[in-house]
Amino acid sequence: MSLMKKYFFDNQHQFRKFNITSLLFSIGLIIFLNKVIDIYFSSYFNKNTYFIFSFILFIISMIGVYFLLYYVKKFLLGMNMTYGYSISKEKERLMPYEFALNNSVDAIYWFTEDAKFEYVNNAACKMLGYRKEELIGNYLELIDPSFTRETAPLVMEEIIDTPNWRLESTQRKKTGEIFDIEVSGHGFYYNGQRYICAFGRDMTQRLIYRNNIISMNKKLQTSLMEKEVLLKEVHHRVKNNMEIISSLLSMQLRRATDQELKYILKQSKSRINTMALVHEFLYLGENIAYINIHDYITRLIQDIQELYLSQNTKLVVDLNIDNHLVFSTTRCIQLGIVLHELCVNSLKYAFKEYKDNLLCIHMIEKSNQIYLKIRDNGDGLENINSLYKTDSIGMQLIHSIVEDQLDGTLAFQNNNGLECNIIFDKKEEA
């Protein structure tokens, strides 16, 4: 019975079936015509005439049947050729997609809503160790021990309802080996039925790399923390050593009797404190490479005031510095020394007791350049040019740092007091 079914419903035998059917139809038609002639026309003709008439009618019938069957067969042949051409074209159109699916690095599965395999590509078979015939028609639980026949359809529904669904799971090879896999999927409709397309990628090697990277990062983090602690300790020791030098100068200052020598020692002590302050910020701060210049200058001006101002000298400091500006250790020391010398000069020559003294320090960034202005409200200076040609150690330091180290410009002018304008590039040379 199954062989007959296969024969009659197989498109490969349709023309053979058509010829057999045509033959049987012709024999049946001849018998039918013979019966009709015998019943209705035998009484009107004699035997010879009846035979001739039957033969002519048979010939005409056969010719009619032949042409009818010929055109039916031609029509069917045309339909078959069209159908074959369409199938060929469809196969040709789908060939790149089939090639891409079968040669994909990732495993690709098609599931029904109840998690039954409908399609697997070559990569899936290679990764799992199964043949396609062993997987198609089976259920997801065959390769993923974390799912059952009851729970797998719930996951299929979740994949359909979740855009960009992704999961890290495990799968089981035919040999029983369990391996890690990353799965992504989405739902789609085909021929009115809903399917789930899933993509699987073996994560074994990736997890090894990930664990190695995590381990390396931990070691690097530990090493970095150790180096940060070491650098902070270095800055702390440098600061302590500078404080020792400052203390020695203080002892010498207390024993000195010459006023000029006292002033020189006080300036030296103040300059050392300016540099020590940088290392203190680096030791106490979270960043061991850069310092916020606003915080640094604020503290620097406070230290200078405590060292140089008398109790009867009132001073208002107008400090306007961008809070976001940060500089390296070297740049902070350079700016600290320049500011120290200029502020000490103002405290020494511009400010007087029982007077409203004003010190302005403004620093802004504009077009990747730093604009620094220091101004006091003293009497100013009659001969500004004398500041460019002087034997003063302080002014020599200012010119040397601004022009040679900062590669900037320096300009003095009288503006309700002495004003100094410094411009230099924000970018520091490596």
The description of the largest β-sheet is:
5 strands, antiparallel
Order of helices and strands: HHHEEHHHEEEHHEHEEHEEHEE
Low-confidence stretches: 1-10
Supply the number of structural domains: 4
- Structural category is alpha+beta
Q: What is the second-level CATH architecture of the largest domain?
A: 2-Layer Sandwich
What's the rounded overall pLDDT mean?
80
Largest sheet strand order: 2-1-5-4-3
Shape: rod-shaped
Count the E strands: 12
Number of helices: 11
Would you mind describing this structure in some detail?
The chain is an alpha+beta fold and 430 residues long. It folds into four domains: 9-102; 107-202, PAS domain (Beta-Lactamase), CATH 3.30.450.20; 212-286; 289-430, Heat Shock Protein 90, CATH 3.30.565.10. The chain contains eleven helices and twelve strands. The strands form three sheets. The protein has a five-stranded antiparallel beta sheet. Strands 7-9-10-12-11 form a five-stranded mixed beta sheet. Helix 8 (259-284) runs antiparallel to helix 9. The radius of gyration is 50 Å and the shape is rod-shaped. Residues 1-10 have low confidence and may be disordered.
